[in-house]
Structures
1.
Amino acid sequence: MTPMIEVRGLRKVYRIGKEKVAALGGIDLDIPQGEFCCIVGASGSGKSTLLNQLAGLEKPTKGSVVIGGQNISAMSEKQLAVFRQNHLGFVFQSYNLLPTLTAVENVALPLMFKGIGKVKREEMAKTQLKQMGLGKRMYHKPTEMSGGQQQRVGIARAFVSKPKVIFADEPTGNLDSKTTVEVMSAILKLVREHNITFVMVTHERDLSGYADRIITLKDGVVLSDERQEHPVVAEELISEPEKENMTHEDQTETDQ
Amino acid sequence: MRITDLISLCFENLRRRKGRTALTVIGVVVGTCSIVVMVSLGIAMNVGFDEMIAEMGDLTKIDVYNWGNQGKEVKLDDKAIAEISALDHVNIATPIYNARYLSASIFSGKNNRYQMDAYNIVGMYPEAIQALQYELQQGEYLKDAPGSGEIKKVPVLVGQNAGYNFMDTKKRRDNYRYPGMTDAKGNPLPPFVDVTKDKLILKTNVNDTTDTSLKSLEYELEVKGVMVEDYQKGYVTSAGIVMDLNLLKRLEAEYMKANKIKDPNYGKTGYDNVTVKVDNIDNVTEVEKKIQELGFSTDSMNSWRENMQKQSQTIQVVLGSLGAVSLFVAALSIVNTMTMAIYERTREIGVMKVLGCGLSKIRSMFLIEAGMIGFLGGIIGIAVSYTLSFVLNHFGPALMSMGLGSMLPMFGSRVSVIPPWLALLGIVFSTVIGVLSGIAPANRAMQISALEAIRHE
């Protein structure tokens, strides 16, 4: 079976003044469908650069990235926009919710870009938000929510269009440890449910416990590529009181 | 992405920056206003010209003369008139004929005591009298007079004040009456002759009193109607007589015979001039040109009007350009506002790009926002313009009397006229200016790198 993401001979060289700095020095990588993949490394190891190349946010200097059989390195900006609409999702470290929009509108945004009508896309967004335990926050603006809630909205936004691949750049970087657990378990649950390929960059080694696979980068090359047989299961991560809290919230929502 | 979604996003963005949007819109309002009001002054000038010319004469009237316009020999006879009548948009064409040879007086009263010189007798086609808008105070218009046979009664229309033109031949002093005259007690004095009731006799003068063989001819005038005085139509509506052209020609012929006047060219050279009435003011140029193509010289208020219109057009362009300067400044402020918006929203734009928003959509978003500013400014600007126009028209005349009139180019009753097309044009223009101002910022927004934008803090 062909992998979901195929990386071949990926190099990225930045010019800083007259000097050339190789951020990525020839990376080959296959990520199969449904894999939860964690890219770790110290600051400056090239992990963010790799993610940007994988997601098509930057063009590689050399090599190619193929997602679902399509070479995104060769795509124009226009084609990339359509490709992102249909196949990719993103979770950002700083949430990046649009401040003027409510939670529902933020989640519905990628669907709006796809051209889905208001009623239908907001219905889909609401369902997604309820699943994330945010049934009570649907019409709140980002500024009226906590960091954890905002990130859950961000995750809902990434998952709402059921993309093939979701990229996450330090998704819990701005969260405390308790919220981190909440957010990670939410992600894990969705990834498993929908068999979505998930690629996450983090410098927190703890988080790699959730992953099927941990790729360690150093100085722009793969230092190690380990697979874990039994990653942490979603349910185990949620402590009892929180579980009750979430179900309670969901129920009140359905009661309304 | 649907256009409705785009528009509502834009609207939301404008609402978010209320203060700045308002300021930019005000700029456009001022710009639109200055252009529209300036142009409206020019239009009012045009309207004023038309009012002015209309006061001086009928704008739909063309005078045709019996001489060629290219040195060519032409003859303005009944045949030529028929030809002119047959042209498109011509309501009627008629000679307004002054019997050159006929010399006569009109008598009334006992022993023909009251006398009036009949030097103002005009002959026209009967059907043309009404078409040329000779208004009647009372009575009815003329019908075709019989073309042959003995002339016993002459049906005529008389001018409103014809009665006052009779002189009392028995008196040496106070032998005239005039309108508004009163006796010693202040009672109004009527004219000597009531033309509608008293019997009027037209007596031709004898050409040569030494020749006893010459006879004076007498005809009874039958007054069919009284014309309303209107100096645009000529003195004839005041104290003259209008009759059927053919009848007048026959009277003239009888007179010439009675006085043994011989003119070999009589009746062969055609009429001196012919009046043509056109159905609509906008067709005057076309009809006039066609008559000139027939070889005749013409004259109408239209050539003057066109000249004035050209002049006022120049003034309009100058005034409009003055206004355009402020709209240009407004356009710069739109560019500024949109550029600021891009800096503020760099991150947002990046996020949208990463989430799959097409480049063209980002561009349209900014263009629509800029266009909305222009449109809003245009709408409000037009509303303000109408208000200003109203104020100018109401207080403009007052300003004139205060000696500030030279500041306002006022020729007619109004200082500023905003026709619907100008209002519409104002809105379209300001919207287009808005969109054009948005192009550079929108292109800039499109080029923002998604990656840079997300990193942007």
Note: Chain A has one domain: 5-255.
2.
Amino acid sequence: MKHKLIASVPAIVLGALIAVAPQTFAHACQGHGTPGACHYSQQAATGIGAAILVLGVIALFVDPRVRIGLNVAVIVDTVLLLAVPTVLIGICKGTMMHCRMVMLPTLVVLGVLALAFAVIGIRVDSRAASASAGGAR
Amino acid sequence: MTSIVITARTLPLENLRRRPMRTAALLVVVAVLAVAFFGGSMLGINLGNGMRSMERRLGADLMVVPQNTESKAEALLTDGSPSTFYFTKEIAHRIERADGIAQASEQTYIASLAAACCAEKLQIIGYDPATDFVIEPWIASQFDGALEDGQMIAGANVNVSADGTIELYGRAWPVVAQLAVTGTSLDNSVFINQDTVPDMVEASASASRRVMPAEYADKAVSTVMIKVKDGYEPQTVADSIKSIDPSLGRLGYVYPGGVTAAAKTALGTLVGYVVVFVAALWAMGVIVLLAVFAASANERKREFASLRIMGATRGMLYGVIARESAIVGLAGGVIGVAAASLVLFPFSALIGSRLELPYLQAGPLVVIGVAAASLVLSTFAGTFASLVAMRGLARPEAYLTLRQGE
């Protein structure tokens, strides 16, 4: 049970934050005449956050080996999340723009945390999986 | 069933692994101490850098500005928002006739449009390269040519497009140089020569709202920057200006030295609070570490007595304890420094703007130095607390310790 929570709850919490933050306090710059890059990064981040959240919820109901796979998917999603505002889509260039001052750092912090917890989850589940495999032998 | 061979070298790590809750609690305490030390130190260093950067760029002893605009002018020197204010060149020329003035130079400030997105509100600063003694000295390190009409020099935060221009009032203005970060509002400014100011005013009129009436475009002056002669005080020169004409007494007089002193006081207060907070947290943290190690020393008497019976010397026991706590200290320190870095560096622009004080991020060498100091201190705190708490553990006779509680 403990391992299950360690390997799934962080993805649920951080996925929810990644989905909600760009639509609330860490929003893109407002008042675009036409939507700018930061707007599309914001929307993409929300989608990726929702996917991480769903992976975390599924992880609550599966065995450790499947959870390892789900956490690998969380890592891939998180790398995508970090790439969206920095490489793939981008944000406004101005250093003092809200998207650069608040949205980008928030996504980076949440992304790094999601990445770190996914690695911890994989490690915890790998041990549990190998221990149960050793016990079965 | 798998068997694990435990040697004297692997014993500390196994001890930590077998008591996950105790290890996690110790890691949290040490990580909090490292966050406080690293975060507090970096904040103080960055604010100090910003203050020194601001001081280097305040070349004038006195600024004469229009009536009731002193606070706007002071904000321009520290970390304020862009603004437009002006009087006429005729007033500026009368000011410059006062006694005690070594150098005087006129500047014109225009706030660009408060664009909703992607084109920031900039402070446009028009200066006279022929008389300037404030901006040129530090611009010279990055741009040694003559600033032609229509050209711009951009502050560090200004978004210059790939073709080397800035879009302002619907026109693309060529940028000849971009300055290094200063940590002050000058980073969000663009510099033009005074002859370009009328062009800028006309551009504003054709693009949106005229920033000043057309008749003022070629004679607007926002401030007269004054360097006083040796032996004169800025206040004396201000009195001398006021004595020329009573109407000049109604103008605003800003003393950049006083602004720096006020900013220094605010900085000193903030850094003082941070130091007290970090010191209090460290005192509490070390007490908590002592308490945790003391409690675990009590419960581990039998473990250590058993080790003594198996032939471990006192030195070996102290070595095990020291290595256990050093591992906790180092790991907690790394977690703490990483956690603080995760907030400090990505959010540095936000921190600077919220503090409303000059904030200049330190270079990588300083950051590495402070991080290393944080790790050393965390490791030392953990090792010190554990050795103090467990100093009596290896001392008594092993057999008697083992019999205790029977």
Note: Chain B is about 50% helix and 15% strand.
3.
Amino acid sequence: MSYLGYPDFFEPYIKKVEETRPARVEKRKKGEEFPFMSLKEREEILKYHPDYREEGKRELRVGPSKGYRIAHEFADLLEAKSRVDPDRVDLTRVDYDTDVLIIGGGGAGTVAAIIAAEYGVEVLMATKLRHGDANTMMAEGGIQAASKGEKDSPYYHYLDVMGGGHFKNDPEIVATFVKQAPDALRWLESLGVMFSKYPDGRLESMHGGGTCRKRMHYCADLSGMEIMRTLRDEARNKENIKVLEFCPAVELILNRRGQCAGALLYNLETEEYLVCKAKAVVLATGGCGRLHIQGFMTTNHYGATADGIVLGYRAGVPLAFMHTVQYHPTGVVFPEQIEGWLITERFRSEGADIVNVHGEKFVNEREPRDVESARYIKECLDGKGIPTPTGKVGVWLDSPMIDILHGEGRVRTAFVGKWKVYYRLGIDISKAPMLVYPTLHYQNGGLKNNSECETVIPGLYVAGEVTGGLHGENRLMGNSLMDIVVFGRIAGRNAALFAKEKAKEDKLTLEHVKRYHEELEKAGIVTDRVSPMLLPDYTRPEVRQKQLTAAYLGTLR
Amino acid sequence: MRSEVNMNSQDPPDVSVREEEKKAVKLIPIYIMGKRYEVPEGLTIMKAMEYAGYKFIRGCGCRGGTCGACGTVYRKPGDYKLQVALACQKTVEPGMYLAQIPFFPVNRARYDFAKLSGAPEEIFRLYPELFRCVACNACTKACPQGIEVMDAISALKQGNISEAAQLSFDCIQCGLCTSRCFGELAQYHMFQVARRIYGGKIVARAKHLEEMVRAIDEGKFDDILEELKKKGEKELKQLYESREIEPVGSGEDWVPKDKAYLLV
């Protein structure tokens, strides 16, 4: 038996939402909003955010940001050894030789590859999974750029980015970002990205959490997918871009002048480690969701294991803003098949309420993400969440309101991706609400860089989620898709120019890895743990207990 | 059947209840590439394979139904029909025989997008095999996204790029259509060209965007941003709190009161 596709268990809870819905719809129609929090009220609520749990963090004992308190899951990876013994790698035998090496095949890496290729250099892209298997592909909500000059400009975009990031962001990086965002959007348009538009070509736009103007542009609810597949197609058209799939980088390679001069790649299928020599390197490895920080479920793709942080840090690049991690307010709690799955913020932008077990609103749906998430967590801690049969808890996202507000069929057309997946599971989200809870979504910080995507290592550029500074302590919706385009372009250009003009030929070295191992030893860190993690392990303990091979011999582990 | 729920902890709530529930879960047999495993009902194919002990390198990507990495074919007992699904989306059924198709070799034509005029003949030249379609509809039946693949191919054959682009918008490029195609078409690569032509050469460009880009290039916001960069936290907070918020129900004609930082 079921009620609107949910198990009977939920019937009384859903009926409560239905009971309060007409009055809430009326308020929306009149334009009555739940009041936004003041900056002071935000501070109070943020105490419920997982970032503020001190027991979830520890001080790093090694490396350029020694003493910095970050999540245990990051610290574990940074206080680990290389996957290889650097002395056993023969750097004189080069397997791949290229001008620009791009590490990572997501949005930022692909944009960098396209632009570098346009400067006429040879580009090699090494990616852990397939080209395009990345968080970019999964981004749904949209992409921010101040495009409508009669009501918006880079000035307002700047204020919103800073406010979302608690005013801690790097001002130079933010200024570059908001100023170049419109041109980046125009570039995507020229590549043929199918943005949602009015018949005269005017871009549709809407609010996101923390925006003061409707600046979020989108391609239905598949914005990231549409952008990623278009970029990938463009990259595939370029003869001077080669792609190595299932070949993640496990260490950066430097040369004796201290320039970044390539990377050690790992063929996941043949288990060989391969030397790739390059004149410049772009690190664009994305985020960290699969580390399941503080035990949270995640929206991220299978390969999001923070590899780039490990590579860059071992080579000497400090960290920035790694003390904060973004939990997206609305991840699916039930049905469990899609647990952790992202429900785009656009549902809230289009007028779907967030309500508690009593069917009451308790928050404006468009607070910045960290504030919004913390508020849901508080509501559940106060006993006003909705339980599930398997002991979880969440709040309702009242999606049927969207059809009532905008006309029947709106959910189905504007949120086609979401609607289909729920429908396959027996739930029509234009009739039934969705049960949600915060889910691990984005790495706010990363490797320290400047607005030219440079790091402390000459020849090493970074772009996208692996970087730290643009978003400060909290990213706003729609700024990550724009991040990868604006800074992917800058990184691609600068890497190509470095390869052409500044790179110097010299002996390759992994000395930095050896030094890092020594530092671990000096700090008294005794561990068998190796990093980067590359892929998460979801093997059940019952299975693992039976995997008893004593030593790796021949074909079978 | 309501379980006790621990809502006073910030940890993932009540793991103990979950474990208990797990014990009560019914196990069902599935056959992964012909080999029998017992897995809990209600799991997706992907999670069931992991439950059985598989560790993915290929055949697993976003785990959310958008990347197309986990195309899977299966048959149910006593049924001649070959079915398709995404492993991360499809729930296991008792007795299902399944195999993943993590890679499928296809023909992709290289082209220079900037040089395309947008005429249908260009797609015909890139993919002459388009006309090998015999309208058998196997592609549509194979699409885990429920796309009318054959209709989109027919639209392309008729030179209707706009329709092909719109019909194929949800395409995740998993290649299952291609794996079943009698005429050996790579439908999803053809649709990719169609969507790019539609988005870049058929739909009107955004004039307001072009105007903003021009104004930025002319330096209109340089001084404004220079000043903002110099402002301390206190001053920024004041500007932030006093900024006018566009009402959520506003139309395209809404304009703010303060126009000092706009393009007017």
Note: Confidence is low (pLDDT under 50) at residues 1-22 of chain B.
4.
Amino acid sequence: MRRASILTSEINPASLIKEVGSQQYGAMSLFIGTVREVNDGRSVSAIEYSAYKSMAGAELERILEEAEARFAVSALIVEHRIGLLALGEVSVAIAAAHAHRAPALDCTRYVIEEIKKRVPIWKKEHYTDGTREWVDPTRAAQVPSA
Amino acid sequence: MSTVTVQLFASYADLLGAPTVELPLAPGTTVQDLLHSIRSLPGASSLPSAPRVAVNRTFAESDQLIEPSDEVALIPPVAGG
């Protein structure tokens, strides 16, 4: 099974693990991305995520399809949240299940890396000094984020 | 002449001051031609030299032809995760 969702409500990583879990699989891998308090040396108070929803959903589906073919995982779920997120809140969660650990781990890694390259989701950081800015990962001098 | 609506998001919507722009569409117009027309709009001079374009929810090459019924969008650098 596989499922990709874009949500405005809170992500519950434990429910993803429950959804992919089965006695048939020896390994489950869970990646969780959260809102960090500092980016590029600036103090962040919140992050506003927005998306081109129909394409983001389609692109997530394509990534899961590729990952499933590549790593032969038995179950794979991704949830990405949009809207205004506070520090520490979960922005993305990916869960994969496989008989063995290596494909499960490699699969979640693949999915998050592809999300960062090609899923049309954007974030506007809100800083503690009251300013706001769109994050542009293609600009130099940015620390890689979760 | 037909027209096509181009969706704008995030920083690009801010630059052009709108979530969509409507442009005339001559037969045989490619993604590259469309980008050329967008560049003449107010605020568009700050767009990068080759912004990513999606046609019907898939990233498009610069020589892809655009039809009036296509869903076209300019995709700023993505920052999900």
Note: The radius of gyration of chain B is 12 Å.
